[in-house]
Design brief:
This is Cell division protein FtsK. This protein is 41% helix and 13% strand. By secondary structure, it is of the alpha/beta class. The strands form 3 sheets. A 10-stranded mixed sheet has the order 6-5-14-13-12-7-11-10-8-9, with helices on one face. Strands 1-2-4-3 form a 4-stranded antiparallel sheet. Strand 16 and strand 17 form a beta hairpin. The N terminus is likely disordered. The structure holds adenosine-5'-triphosphate.
């Protein structure tokens, strides 16, 4: 055992035997002397040279078992510690305390609260308040006759009781009487008299006030009765006084107005509620972690208002993923005692263990969705996002058309036709976009779009299906043609990424304008005995090829099994909207494998009830969204605007000519051969350009020498200086030789034959 004589001795029994029962500094004359260590050390330090300075942090001690030679005051058991031994931790924690640095973003509440940051959220919050106020007004308005009756009964009672109370107040007996009685009981006349004097003093000025008040009230009453006051003044006076009297006259436990019971309409989100709900999810990782450390669930931000609801950002215990909780949304809602569509857990930003839990003031199904922003005015540029849906908290979600393909799936009544039509309506508002629409159910949901469609089909009869299949085959050819055009424009430096650009899409005669093809109930085509298989294969190819070429395919289906929807298609579609589906298989067929497992479950939506709701992937992170609702009448108005835009732009499809007009394609080498000046072995570019433009103005109109040079480059035709005599003078310009052109054509033909 070691004993530190410099530490206070709590328990003398623990002392080493040699100094038990003795006071320090006292010599007994027997056995060892008790040494005053402080004094002895001071003496030693005085005699010995000073030791080197030891930094504060280092322990200053005499090692046990190594007594200083010649030091009489330390035995082998003695360890003198003159400070706390602070050594480095054996296994320093990973998360060392970072030096304090003010962090600009962390944990500071935002200057503008979340609900006031966008117009949409501000409007949603205001709408919620207005709705709440409206509810209160409606509630009380309905009961107002009852309130009037109660007021009529209680007001006279209130008049009498108020008079009584005023009289009691004027006597100043209240409180004083009990004290006087107490003094009388104690036989204390002096106190009694003092109290009574005080009462008289109080009572005197109170009677005066009451008298003047009564005179004033009486005069007021006389004026009220005798003078010819405007009706509204009388009414206002009565409306002010009568409820006050009724309030005074009603029994304390019988309020005049009924209580507005809010029930479970809204439950304020608190950290405790969130913790409890998370524990109720039955995720072992959460429960084990919380049993060891109650703070294993933490909130990096305070729970705050966010649109028409509250948002809790939660850091789950180590190793638990937000997806685990999202997959148990039902349990979460159950633990909060809220309807399912009021509780919206989503993966948070930062790490997979961060959960963003939004709880609405009311179920999403009961919230009014704002109108589609493009309903009344506005144009669309298909290269830019367009408003497509809203989040549960009514934020607007924008969808993309260009370089995208869409798959919308859901059971009947889920709202997929409306969602698909919304995307087509948006495309219609870009006058450059050519629309080809098939609806293979035959009820005419897209009929309203027909005037702006280059091709339109409606029905599930063999003829319509055959036309639709032929359109897909044409689309594939169109993709081939477009890829050649892209090559051409890429060579001219006009398609930098070998993709359609907005400039090319707008360039008349480029043949690269946006082409939007929508096929609803596509399962009718894919399951068709004659056309199904080929159509599936072609459709897959078009989806793969078309994206960069300005071809956008939008498909809708209600049976997403592998026969009705080839997996190659689902795999290659990059925007998927899974509306209400019956089971996990359908969910994952539309959204992709494991999406159900990861918590993205469109099975929670009920057809009709939750029409328009679905899980949207490919536009931001996957989440529940509700497409904007545009019914057929509203769609008609949008189409009218689309028609006006197209008439202005000259892109209105000709009525009754729903043919697939092939956009001019061209073969530069063949065209050059055709326009070549027969007598010449070499020709200037500028001459060739003007002849080409004369032959195909829609393709070559405006071409300059450099453009022809660039276009010829991929074909390996050499462009050089060609000399001529003009008016006897030699002139040199850029041009090509007939031999080079013929060689390039021969080479191409040879490659074509061998390839
Ligand atoms: N975004 C939406 N918001 C509210 N209601 C909607 C929305 N979309 C659709 N609905 C309603 O749901 C009903 C069904 O919509 P829709 O016809 O698009 O469903 P569907 O899935 O195509 O069903 P079906 O296969 O039977 O046509 C519509 O009549 C409409 O009233």
């Amino acid at each position: 055992m070691t004993y530190n004589p410099f530490e206070p001795d709590e328990n003398p029994a623990d002392r080493p035997p040699h100094d038990a029962g003795q006071d320090a500094g006292q010599s007994t004359g027997q056995g060892a002397d008790v040494v005053q260590l402080d004094a002895a050390r001071a003496e030693r330090d005085r005699l010995a040279p000073l030791p080197p300075a030891v930094p504060d942090s280092e322990p200053t001690h005499v090692p046990n078992g190594e007594p200083d030679e010649g030091d009489d005051f330390f035995d082998r058991e003695t360890v003198a510690i003159t400070g706390r031994i602070v050594g480095p931790p054996v296994d320093p924690p990973d998360e060392t305390a970072a030096p304090h640095r003010p962090q600009a973003t962390s944990k500071r509440p935002p200057i503008v609260p979340g609900w006031a940051r966008t117009w949409a959220t501000l409007r949603a919050a205001a709408a919620w308040k207005a709705k709440d106020a409206g509810y209160l007004v409606g509630y009380h308005a309905l009961r107002s006759p009852k309130y009037v009756a109660k007021t009529a009964v209680y007001a006279p009672v209130g008049l009498l009781s108020t008079g009584g109370r005023l009289l009691t107040w004027a006597t100043a007996e209240q409180g004083n009487w009990a004290l006087r009685q107490y003094a009388a009981d104690r036989n204390d006349p002096e106190t009694w008299l003092k109290l009574d004097k005080q009462r008289q003093r109080q009572s005197r000025w109170r009677w005066t006030v009451l008298l003047f008040g009564s005179i004033l009230a009486l005069v007021g009453l006389l004026v009220f009765l005798a003078v010819d006051l405007p009706g509204w003044v009388r009414l206002a006076a009565l409306a002010g006084a009568v409820p006050l009297l009724a309030r005074a006259g009603r029994p304390a436990d019988k309020p005049i107005t009924d209580r507005v019971t809010e029930g479970q309409r809204y439950r304020k989100l608190t950290a405790e509620l969130v913790r409890r709900a998370l524990l109720a999810c039955g995720i072992p990782g959460i429960n084990q972690a919380v049993s060891k450390d109650p703070n294993a669930i933490s909130f990096p931000q305070e729970i705050h208002r966010d649109g028409p609801g509250h948002m809790a950002i939660v850091d789950l215990p180590f190793g638990v993923e937000a997806a685990d909780v999202i997959a148990r949304r039902g349990r979460l809602a159950s633990a909060m005692r809220l309807p399912l569509d009021q509780v919206w857990p989503e993966p948070g930003v930062g790490h997979p263990g961060r959960l963003a839990l939004w709880v609405g003031y009311e179920p999403a199904g009961q919230m009014r969705q704002p109108a589609w922003p493009l309903l009344r005015d506005g144009k669309v540029d298909v290269f830019k996002p367009f408003p497509f849906a809203t989040t549960p908290r009514m934020d607007v979600i924008h969808g993309d058309l260009m370089f995208r393909n869409w798959l919308v799936g859901g059971q009947p009544g889920s709202g997929k036709t409306f969602a698909l039509r919304l995307a087509v309506l948006a495309a219609a508002l870009d006058p450059r976009a050519e629309l080809r629409v098939y609806e293979l159910k035959g009820v005419g949901d897209f009929k309203v779009m027909e005037p702006v469609c280059t091709e339109y089909g409606n029905g599930f009869d063999d003829e319509t299906i055959a036309r639709c299949a032929a359109m897909l085959a044409w689309l594939y050819k169109e993709c081939e043609r477009r890829s050649k055009r892209i090559d051409h424009y890429a060579a001219l430096g006009k398609a930098p990424e070998n993709k359609v650009t907005p400039e090319l899409a707008s360039l008349k005669g480029s043949g690269l304008h946006p082409l939007i093809v929508s096929i609803d109930e596509i399962q009718e085509l894919f399951s068709h005995r004659e056309h199904g298989k080929d159509a599936g294969e072609i459709c897959e190819k078009v989806i793969k090829l078309g994206r960069a070429l300005g071809v956008v395919l939008l498909i809708g289906t209600q049976i997403p099994d592998k026969d009705s929807l080839p997996t190659g298609i689902t795999r290659n579609v990059n925007t998927r909207y899974c509306m209400s589906v019956a089971d996990q298989v359908a969910n994952d067929m539309i959204l992709g494998t494991s999406m159900y497992k990861n918590g993205y479950r469109a099975t929670v939506f009920e057809p009709k009830v939750d029409a328009g709701w679905g899980i949207l992937t490919g536009i931001g992170k996957p989440a529940a969204r509700r497409s904007f609702f545009v019914d057929s009448n509203a769609a008609k108005q949008v189409v009218a605007r689309a028609i006006a835009l197209r008439v202005d732009a000259g892109t209105m499809p000709e009525p009754d000519t729903q043919t697939r007009t092939d956009v001019p394609s061209f073969d530069l080498l063949a065209d050059l051969a055709q326009v070549w000046p027969a007598a010449d072995d070499a020709a200037w570019n500028e001459l060739l350009c003007s002849r080409l433009a004369g032959m195909r103005p829609e393709v070559y109109g405006g071409w300059k020498s450099e453009q022809l040079t660039a276009a010829l480059k991929p074909h390996g035709v050499k462009v050089g200086d060609i000399g001529r005599r003009i008016d006897g003078k030699p002139v040199t310009r850029r041009g090509i030789r007939r031999d080079d052109l013929t060689a390039a054509i021969a080479e191409r033909n040879r490659r074509g034959r061998s390839g």
